[in-house]
Design a protein that fits this description.
4-stranded mixed sheet, single chain, alpha/beta, 310 residues
Length: 310
């Protein structure tokens, strides 16, 4: 088995083969609303906030607000600016909350697995247990959405040493847990089929910024504009297309006072013609079709002891 720290070969941005995006766009941006399910009485004494044993009514209900109210307010901004979205979804919601499911399907959102429920992590799973987890995930998607899942952000960003290999075995092509770059990067797996990391974000993410660190909505907008405008300038200077992710959670961004800030972010993204607004799957598909082989070859040339991935 490939060790976790051998999944990547260090390959700095300078010197890489050029990555470009369709129609001359220079920065690909994907919106990742995290629509999450929490067990009221979860297994293993888990808790939404790690504060008290279950039932943790205070934090359970704070998050449940997102699916009851915040999600629907956020949709109005998504619809107004026609923002393609890749939902980071706790898949239990496909079965348990049909109203949310149908709203996402009506908008043709791409479904990215965020596990079955956000407190059911895969840490410590055996290979058989984790393979069953992926099998259930795909069956939920096929049953309730009529499609298979192409990527995953692990539940609570959890994983094991075999996660990457099992994702490929279950038909996935991108993994959002590896927040280490501004471009998709090949991940070394045992299969010949490709798996790439897709840049997710903790910096342009409403939970760490607005919830954990208590920055303002204005600051969130400033961070998005500062980061993406800098990436646009860097892409013009070195010719390397880049990827940014705007990560939201309805229980935070769906609060009444946040709506105008979300609309400011979407308006900024829509007004700049250099931005490619896409789903994680579209970015991955383009990268694999046009850049994957060259990127692997380049990375391998930097690490002659290895034989697969970057």
């Amino acid at each position: 088995m490939i060790a976790t720290d051998d999944r990547l070969i260090y390959a700095p941005m300078p010197g890489r083969p050029q990555v470009t995006w369709p129609e001359g766009k220079t920065v690909a941006v994907w919106h990742a609303p995290n629509v999450e399910h929490y067990d009221y009485v979860p297994a293993y004494s888990a808790s939404p906030q790690g504060r008290v044993p279950a039932p943790d009514v205070q934090h359970y209900m704070h998050r449940d607000y997102g699916n009851r109210v915040g999600f629907w307010r956020m949709l109005r901004a998504v619809d107004r600016f026609e923002i393609p979205s890749t939902v980071s979804l706790s898949l239990a919601l496909l079965e348990e909350v049909p109203e949310v499911r149908e709203a996402m399907l009506e908008r043709d959102w791409e479904i990215m697995s965020h596990g079955i429920s956000n407190l059911r992590t895969v840490y410590g799973y055996t290979e058989e247990q984790e393979s069953e987890f992926f099998d259930i995930s795909q069956r939920l998607a096929e049953t309730y959405a009529g499609r298979r899942i192409k990527g995953m952000l692990g539940p609570k960003i959890s994983g094991t040493v075999q996660t990457s290999d099992l994702m490929v075995k279950h038909g996935m092509t991108y993994h959002a847990d590896w927040v280490h770059d501004e471009q998709p990067r090949p991940l070394r797996v045992e299969s010949e089929q490709p798996l790439v990391s897709i840049p997710y974000s903790y910096m342009l993410n409403d939970v760490p910024l607005l919830f954990a660190k208590h920055y303002s909505g204005e600051y969130f907008v400033q961070m998005v504009i500062a980061q993406i405008s800098r990436m646009l300038r860097d892409a013009e200077e070195d010719g390397q297309g880049r990827v940014a992710c705007v990560a939201t959670h309805p229980f935070i961004i769906g609060q009444p006072g946040m709506q105008k800030h979300l609309e400011e972010i979407f308006d900024y993204l829509r007004r700049d013609g250099r931005v490619w607004l896409a789903t994680a799957g579209q970015i991955t598909d383009h990268y694999i079709a046009h850049h994957y082989k060259d990127q692997v070859s380049h990375a391998m040339s930097l690490d002659t002891k290895t034989t697969g991935g970057a």
